[in-house]
Amino acid sequence: MAAHLLAHEVADLCLGKPPLRSLTVSATIGEALASLKSCEENCISVWDCDHFKNVDCICVGKICMVDIICFLCKKENVNSPSLALKSPVTALLPKDSVLVRHVQPSTSLLEAIDLILQGAQNLVVPRETRFSGSSRRKLLQKSSSTRGCTLHNGRKFCWLTQEDVIRYFLSSIGLFSPLPTASIDALGIISTEFLSIGYHSSASLATEAISRSLVDQTSVAIVDEDGALIGEISPFTLACCGETVAAAITTLTAGELLAYIDCGGPPEDIVRVVKERLKERNLEGMLEEFEIDPSDISSNSSLSDEELPSPTSSRSSGGRYNKSSSYSARMVRRAEAIVCYPGSSLVAVMVQAIAHRVNYVWVIEEDCIVVGIVTFANMLQVFRDQLESMMLGHFD
Where is the region Disordered (predicted)? Predict the structure, then answer.
């Protein structure tokens, strides 16, 4: 059984995946922003290439909208976001990062899992399409001057992610019986170290935590005084808001930010609050750079100060979590976080995460107190250990 699972190579998990869109290390953050807005992907690969010297191209990292948002929220950039956008895209890449790793199509599934458990978020896998001779040189020259090019070293590449591997295991989940029905508590995969911020705290205090959650592929919990989960600041949700949310993070509380990022567009009253606070803090540059288009404002979503969501009101209005929720629970103004309980089974948590396209699930108690978080990395470690046991049993 283990031999059957491990016979697969990473190429088998990359079938049908689209080629990477990319930027060169010489691009600016503004160019990266334009590229992200013009494509459907939520991140873009960054490459170090010199096609004219016939040197192999290397993917040195990836960037997404949240990288740009957090960069713009830095103290040195809030006064002049337009100048910050002229910075090189390399300013967004962590030093000595292992978040992106190159692998060959023939790399075994076990090797890929080990790389992910060592910290890799994305594995860069070459596709099988090849070019040769003069056509290859022409394509290389053309791609070297094209924003968003997909060709490197005469080949196209794609990502392999944690989600891809988890989906693979879910498709073969019956082979791991009875592991899938074990509770996440019994498996010991609930991480009690997670990122959080108080509901009434300034959202700007969460900037570093948001950056960390992006690296960890998790989220930042918003909790009340008792540690109960009110909502979350999700990198995925922030990315959907675009770079203008940097102004909201700079001026709003965590609770106000929940209302701002919900419902597909910020309520008009909260937009007014953001503008007033930017003026009070003499952040005219950010105000001018991030003028919010009225068409982005949610219709029928204007809130008065008294109507802004609060931990108390959400608790009484049913916005808090309760055991009757099947997989997720609606929070303040339809913001959604995915939750489970210590007794939830491994397979149920896998299904929740995959169905909602997140790499984590919050773990709460009956009283909604956050006790931890379960991530894809936690799950992969369980499967990695199980595969090793299977292999030892096979050889014995």
Answer: 294-322
- Provide the b/e sequence for 49-71 (b: ≥16 CB within 10 Å): bebeeeeebbbbbbbbbbbbbbb
CB atoms within 10 A of CB 238: 26
Residue 292 or 87, more confident: 87
**Residues ≥6 apart with Cβ < 8 Å to 195:** 209, 212, 213, 216, 218, 219, 220, 221
pLDDT digits (tens, 9 = 90+) for 345-369: 999 999 999 999 999 999 999 999 9
- Provide CB contacts within 8 A for 231, sequence distance 6+: 221, 222, 255, 258, 331, 332, 335, 337
Distance CA 234, CA 236 (A): 5
Q: Give the pTM.
A: 0.82
Residue 328 CB contacts under 8 Å (≥ 6 apart), including other chains: 336, 337, 338, 339, 352, 356
Mean pLDDT of 130-134: 47
Is residue 201's pLDDT more than 50?
yes
